[in-house]
Amino acid sequence: MSQARMVQIEQNILSKNDQYAAANRNWFAEHGILALNLVSSPGSGKTSLLTRTISDLKSELELSVIEGDQQTANDAERIRETGVKALQINTGKGCHLDAHMVGHALESLHPDDGSVLFIENVGNLVCPAAFDLGEAHKVAILSVTEGEDKPIKYPDMFHAADLILMNKIDLLGYLDFDVEKCIAYAQRVNPGIKVLQVSATTGEGMESWYRWVKATQQLAVIGT
Amino acid sequence: MSQARMVQIEQNILSKNDQYAAANRNWFAEHGILALNLVSSPGSGKTSLLTRTISDLKSELELSVIEGDQQTANDAERIRETGVKALQINTGKGCHLDAHMVGHALESLHPDDGSVLFIENVGNLVCPAAFDLGEAHKVAILSVTEGEDKPIKYPDMFHAADLILMNKIDLLGYLDFDVEKCIAYAQRVNPGIKVLQVSATTGEGMESWYRWVKATQQLAVIGT
Questions:
Q1: Which end of chain B is more exposed for a tag (fewer CB within 10 A), N or C?
Q2: Percentage with pLDDT > 90 across chain B
Q3: How far is CA A101 from CA A9, A15, A68, A94, in A?
């Protein structure tokens, strides 16, 4: 296939995705639902962070989860053990969730009006950056074990995200990871990005993340 | 001057501005200040909307204002009558505020920690779109008297803004203005943009704007 033809096909796919994303976004707005698209490398601790978040917030907010993985329903099972609704999407060979998959998942999951929907994307810092799911924000989870250069190596993702949860900070004492440099790199690709330092293991910093979710949820129920 | 040279100069100016904007943004983050950059055409009712907002919110939030105009200090005087701190920047021939001007204004204005700073930009839907002031959000005020096509005629501005206050909705009965079409145009250039319909004259819809400001201010005091 010629390169021009491949570019054309990619543009058509993204344009189609954007239409589905717009439909999801309208539906979230009508129902006052805050949708957060959680993106990261594999092994950033995304699912552990999410299960802790759910346990700590489920008494205050209505929550549900869409889990994206190439294979297995392990993550959705971990989430369901917390007592909230969760639906697994297996993408098979696909390396990201797309808006059409999420639209179908919504039909089965039925998130409540005024609730928070976490969409845990496939662990991948490249492709999910290009696919709008209709979410209010992409939240990037970056483990300090991955090195501080990730924001400039994967600029599309850190440009697309509004918040970084810098996870596993309980390990900082054992690593050669420069927190300030990582924040500076992130701000180079996205001047307005916010960074919260957290440990899903010890709970350190998680309270700031919960305050962020709660204030953002208040925004989701306002206006169009 | 050659066109290439003009483009080079413009790039240098924007790059310089971005450094000042980053310094402002860091300073806002350190002090937990929410900075909102209010942009619009001339005559959108921006100052009236701002004075009403201040009167209604000043008992709940600490507020201050930077006013940008080519000439006159009339607007800062209108704001000071509400009892909050205001500083006027006259841009002279300049058609927008830049981050360096705002940095200097901060030194004189001394906004309080945890406060909300409104920056009323020069009435202009073009140039202010390109100049980051270090704000958390650009808020575009669009009067329904201006016609619903403004978002697609000034796409840079509506792409850069996170919220539209669709003002003067008390006049909708007298105008041929299609609210839904205007929202669709705005979402075409910026799928995630939020739209609130308000009238600074009658007060209709202003409560949603105030809830947005208060939830957004809560976000400003969280994290880096």
A1: N
A2: 84
A3: 19, 15, 10, 11
pLDDT band with cut points at 50, 70 and 90 for residue A92: confident
Out of A25, A197, A224, closest to residue B191 by CB: A25
Other Cβ atoms closer than 10 A to A149: 12
CB contact under 8 A, B222 and A216: no
Q: State pLDDT tens for residues A120-175.
A: 999 999 999 999 999 999 999 999 999 999 999 999 999 999 999 999 999 999 99
The amino acid at residue A102 is: V
Prediction pTM value: 0.84
Find chain A residues with C-beta within 8 A of B186's C-beta.
none
B62 burial (CB, 10 Å; 0-12 / 13-18 / 19+) is middle
* Integer angstrom CA distances of residue B172 from B19, B177, B181: 42, 7, 14
Q: Of B108, B117, B109, B98, which is closest to residue B50 (Cα–Cα)? A: B117
- What is the pairing mode between strands B116-120 and B63-69? parallel
Q: How confident is the model at residue B5 (pLDDT cuts 50, 70, 90)?
A: confident
B218–A211: do the CB atoms touch at under 8 Å? yes
Tokens 């907010």, residue located: A61
- Coil, strand or helix at B12: helix
- Length, in residues, of chain B: 224
Distances (CA, A) of B212 to A57, A144, B217: 22, 33, 8
A211·B195 Cβ contact <8 A: no
**3-state SS string for A26-50:** HHHHHHCCEEEEEEECCCCCHHHHH
**Which residue blocks in A68-154 are alpha helix, DSSP H?**
74-80, 99-109, 150-153
Question: How far apart (Å, rounded) are the C-alpha atoms in residues A87 and A109?
Answer: 7
Nearest by CB: A191 against B132, B192, B208:
B132
H-helix segments, A58-143: 74-80, 99-109
DSSP calls for B125-185: SSGGGG---S-SEEEEEEEGGG-TTHHHHSHHHHHH-SEEEEE-GGGGGGS---HHHHHHH
